[in-house]
Specification:
The protein is α+β, with helices and mostly antiparallel strands. 37% of the residues lie in helices and 23% in strands. It has 2 domains: 134 residues, minor pseudopilin epsh domain (minor pseudopilin epsh fold, 3-Layer(bab) Sandwich), CATH 3.55.40.10; 51 residues.
């Protein structure tokens, strides 16, 4: 009896099965090694360094914005992009801290008559509180952030299956869902930060040095500082 050869349809189906099995094996190996998370950490480190230089050279406060989906959502990818303010300003948190300190000082002065300032004349200089109020209004007008794009700082997405969380020095715990920010200041510094990239059971930590903007990638989960 003469052997029958494979038809074109049968060959196509067989080839499709082989491609599917190969893709499954590659995906499985990637999840085991965390290769996509490691590559994404290196790319993110380059973006951070470029944005650090941009803030220093342009004299503007910039920030890296992370859009973090729910870690249980395997369909939506993590997105991040750069934004820069209209002028040389600090973060909202820094301004609020300065204003809070001034209010505390005025409350202490009110409790201690010896520390109360003497009434000023109409021609006297404005009080520090008035100056702070004026400065806050000026800064609020300047702190309009807009998306900043450049070839080396273009908006990006993390590879499918790679999740992220972000910690900065103002936070107690890392943010794993929602929106997170990493600020870069014109004075040539940034916030101390840890960015965690997870793929399967693998975790890569990107540590950001505040004074140099240098990033270090470590192949484990670095503990969030508590002091």
């Amino acid at each position: 009896m003469k052997a029958r050869g494979l038809t074109l349809i049968e060959l196509t189906i067989a080839l499709a099965i082989v491609v599917l099995l190969f893709a499954t094996v590659v995906t499985g190996v990637g999840a085991i090694t965390g290769s996509r998370a490691k590559a994404a950490a290196g790319e993110l480190g380059g973006v951070i360094r470029s944005l650090y230089d941009t803030a220093s050279l342009t004299g503007r406060t910039c920030r890296l914005v992370f859009q973090l989906p729910d870690p249980r959502d395997d369909q939506t990818r993590v997105k991040y992009w750069a934004e820069c303010a209209a002028g040389n300003v600090t973060t909202r948190r820094d301004r609020e801290n300065a204003i809070r300190d001034e209010i505390k000082k005025e409350q202490e002065d009110a409790k201690n008559p010896a520390r109360r300032p003497a009434p000023r004349s109409a021609s006297a200089q404005p009080t520090l509180q008035e100056v702070m109020s004026q400065e806050r209004e000026r800064v609020e007008a300047a702190v309009r952030y807009s998306v900043y794009t450049a070839p080396e700082i273009a908006p990006r997405e993390l590879p499918s299956g790679v999740h992220a969380s972000v910690w900065t020095r103002h936070q107690r715990d890392a943010i794993g869902a929602g929106t997170a920010y990493l600020y870069f200041f014109p004075q040539g510094e940034t916030e101390r930060a840890l960015v965690y990239l997870r793929q399967g059971r693998n975790v890569w930590t990107l540590e950001v040095a505040p004074l140099t903007g240098k990033t270090t990638v470590m192949s484990d989960e670095v503990e969030v500082p508590r002091s």
